[in-house]
Amino acid sequence: MLSLIFSFLKIFFFYYYNENITSDIKIYTLISLIVYVLIRVTYFMRIVYVKIHNPAFIFITSFVFLSFLGSILLMLPASTVKKISFIDALFTSTSAVCVTGLVVLDTAKDFTYLGKIFILILIELGGLGILTITSFFSYFFRDGFSFKEAIFISNFLNTKTTNNVLSLAVKVVMFTLTVEFIGTLLIYFSIKEKNTIESDNILFFSIFHSISAFCNSGFSTLSQGLYSQSVRFNYIFQLIIAFLLILGGIGFNILFNFFTYIWLTIKKYFLKIFKDEDFRCPVHVVTLNTKIVILTTFFLLVFGTVFYYISEYHCSLSEHSSFHGKWIVSFFSSATSRTAGFHVLNMNTFTPITIFFTIFLMWIGASPASTGGGIKTSTFALALMNVISLSRGKNRLEIQRKEISSESIRLSFSIIMLSIIVIYISILIIIFLDPKEDILSISFEVFSAFSTAGLSLGITSNLSNGSKLILILLMLLGRIGIFNVMIGLLKKNKIGSHHYYRYPKGNILIN
């Protein structure tokens, strides 16, 4: 693998610094090299599958490896305008791979065109996951795809079966590329007539923000982000970004299940109207998981929109004079707070209640098997419904005539508890390392990093290297999943040994 990286860098330097080669050839060569590296990584991952029998550990190391590789690429002289430190390069790379959006450097001014391309590639690889990407290339080498590999990919894609897991990975990649292509076109035409965009290439601007939005990364090629004067009042552009964020943050399994239901419904009425045929949809086409995620997402979006509109009406929203403009910006803020680091409001003028509400939304985050972070909407919904169920005196949780397994309930409360512990410890450490920063800004930063939300009150670049390392670890934990980290690092009992006995039950007094 190291020889592959050195070969890549050798060829890259030859082509990039050769003045006799045109810029177009350099770009095509770079793209070809990237595709070649991805194919080689596919073979490398197969070797890893054989050697290591821990899906969670492979999942963890894939993100860590990608973050370090990205930091090396971003430290290349051709990637930056001026020399940057390893910590800043690692922070930027991790933020891109973990699709967070927290930055310590100005993406627009501190990185060259090539550096921005590297960041974009890291965002795409991090959003989809290197396991999904390698599975996509494995699709063209079916003979070498083993059952063990299928188990690893099914764990990553959060599916209960290994049937057609390879085709599912391909569907994920193709769906992502299709949505990003449509998003690029929509963004391009929404800003085409406006010559105020701070970018030399509007097409690249459109591609970058489409990928960044769908992958929920929050990176922007504008120095002030989407708060820039050129797009701050472009409400069509904001709606496009918001819907890309929602699609990327709702989860691939949920989207495929929901689109299947839509397709079958259209097919049913088409056959009934035009061919006078009856078509019976399969029972329970829409899964309980899909219903919970979509309803929770819808509720959070609506409630968040109304809250931002009311709390910021006389503050940060005051610069938007139109009625529809205020509502669109409120909707955008509600969507981006849970998933990405885009912002179209001056966050330094936020009221304290808005800041605390934003922290709450960031903590909940996106949905399972999506490009976003946080404790996830289903975890929050399940824990909340379990509390309501216990308050009513029930000893089990039932939703729509289905009993939720105790394992799912225990897992949801474990994730919530672990997230609170990790966040609290991180806040204490950063307060110790950077005592000059106020506790609210530090807390906001920590929640943002752990939830891979990417929003900031403006202290990221002022933090010490120690605090930056804490945020790097938080971003990795948030993207990988703290429970996956524990599964990957902690030793398990011997196979099946804990299933053959049960101790007497003991009751603990809880008030």
UniProtKB/TrEMBL annotation:
Report the subcellular localization: Cell membrane
An MF annotation (GO) of this entry = monoatomic cation transmembrane transporter activity
The region annotated as signal peptide is none
Which superkingdom?
Bacteria
Report TM segments: 25-44, 56-78, 84-105, 117-141, 165-190, 202-223, 235-264, 285-311, 349-366, 411-433, 469-490
Task: Specify whether Transit peptide is a keyword of the entry.
Answer: no
One GO CC annotation: plasma membrane
Enumerate the UniProt keywords alphabetically.
Cell membrane, Ion transport, Membrane, Transmembrane, Transmembrane helix, Transport
Check the record and name the InterPro entries matching this protein: Cat_transpt
Q: Pfam families attached here?
A: TrkH
| Membrane topology recorded in Swiss-Prot or TrEMBL | Multi-pass membrane protein
Entry keyword annotation includes Ion transport: yes
**Quick one: a GO biological-process term for this protein?**
metal ion transport
Q: What is its main location?
A: membrane
Name of the protein: K+ uptake transporter subunit KtrB
